[in-house]
Design goal:
The chain is 29% helix and 34% strand.
Length: 179
């Protein structure tokens, strides 16, 4: 069965997207797998894509597009490996992303929610074996004072495949998704 997940690709100004992707090329060994995104449902198997898309559509229909602002980098130790991740974390829109994540993990996804790992809304821009290198990269980003505005307007159901994730369904927030 396919490994699926749900992400949001924020709508960003081209220069901001290029800056984020440049960070990812420098610091994230998985940058070629998927474009910059917020993960809302982490990879899992055991559900048909159509069932997941139906659930995501119902959650999305009850929501609405919302703004985010990325203004700082944060380092987080991975709970499942020895890596330290470098995240861009939204301050504006943080609670909206958390509430969307929580809504998605109800119903057919309720049993897949990991309660042992905290959910931090983020765009991953790096993964480091050396936590000090992650700290230095975060400091460099934070000294630059990023102020990246964007909008989360769509959710994407994707299949996690190599060498790249494959989009299965795009679902707009706030619309009846009867496609």
């Amino acid at each position: 069965m396919q490994t699926l997940c749900v992400v949001a690709y924020p709508e960003l100004a081209p220069a901001d997207r290029d800056w984020i992707e440049g960070l990812r090329r420098r610091h994230d060994p998985n940058y070629r797998l998927v474009d910059a995104h917020l993960t809302l449902v982490f990879p899992f198997a055991g559900l048909e894509p159509e069932a997941l898309a139906g659930h995501v559509g119902a959650v999305a229909a009850a929501g609405a597009p919302f703004a985010i602002a990325l203004r700082c980098a944060l380092i987080v130790r991975d709970a499942l490996s020895e890596l330290t991740h470098l995240f861009l974390v939204p301050d504006a829109g943080f609670s909206r992303v958390v509430l969307l994540h929580d809504a998605l993990y109800r119903g057919v996804l309720a049993s897949r929610l990991r309660l042992d790992v905290p959910y931090i809304p983020h765009i991953t821009v790096g993964a480091f074996a050396d936590p000090q290198a992650a700290r230095e990269a975060a400091d460099e980003i934070n000294r630059a004072g990023p102020d990246i505005a964007g909008t989360v307007a769509r959710l994407s159901v994707v299949a996690v495949e190599s060498p790249r994730v494959r989009p299965l369904r795009e679902i707009a927030l706030g619309l009846a998704n009867d496609e």
